[in-house]
Amino acid sequence: MNSNGYWFSIITIITVLIVCASNSLPTVLQKQNETELQQQDMKKAESMTVFCGSVNKPAMEEIVKLFESETGIKINMIFGGSGTLLSQIELSRKGEIYLPGSPDYIIIGNRKKLLIEDSDRIIVYLVPAIITPAGNPANIHSLKDMTKPGLRIALGNPETVCLGLYAIEILEKNQLLEEVMKNVVAFGASCSKTANLAAMKNVDAIIGWRIFHYWNKDLMTYVLISPESIPRISYIPVSIPVYTKDKVLSEKFIDFICSSKGKKVYEKLGYLTDKSQALEYAPNASIGGEYKLPDKYFELIKNGIFTR
Fold first, then answer.
1. pLDDT of 27-62, one tens digit each?
2. Distance CA 254, CA 9 (A)
3. Domain hosting residue 274, numbered range
4. pTM of the model
């Protein structure tokens, strides 16, 4: 091979290498970009914030551990009254999940445009009941019994706690609102705090959820309310705040809660996972919807029948 042919071959090889490298460069850069985006997504999804009504607390603490174990995603749980939590979402402008104790607050959240429309799903059902300290020392067996002079009654705060709304609704329907309110000595700031008032014998009875008894059978007894006296049954919904930083992750967590694995946790702890189970306690009751506090309630508060 003469020198001209030799250099021609070298130049040809170099040209081919340059062309190949330039052709592969976009692919390499694309892969690098995809990796960086994936890493950013992982970093973004390292944690999520769940605003959770305290009626869910026993089940959700266990479900969260399972989810964190399977995904490695850290979940920050904030428990409280459903109305208080919705206000926190509004003020903080954050949150991946909103899990109140009744659909009333989903309706309010949608009205205020704080939740992604149609993102809510039903998890389990809740039935109202009278909850007393273990053994029912005050011998309370009906709503009417709660009007006896000298009794100490507690309700969830109806202005911020879903349980309180249902209690006022039940008392109003049965024309016992004013009589029972005369005995009310405390409003609980959440479902769990209201339940604790009965468990710790600070009151003779509360209007709570049937599930409270299963939280601690040694400390609380439940008395069923007559079916015809219950106007409405609640359910625990879950929804996605508009401020979620990762809608896909929010949906993934909701799927996990509603899966057989999540439902088994609720069922094991005594929650009612099927609508037919709940209707056995009040066949003619409506399910879900929204209740607005009556003027009579505010009149009673204003007139000092109960001082918070």
1. 544 555 555 554 455 445 589 999 999 999 999 999
2. 64
3. 46-125+235-283
4. 0.82
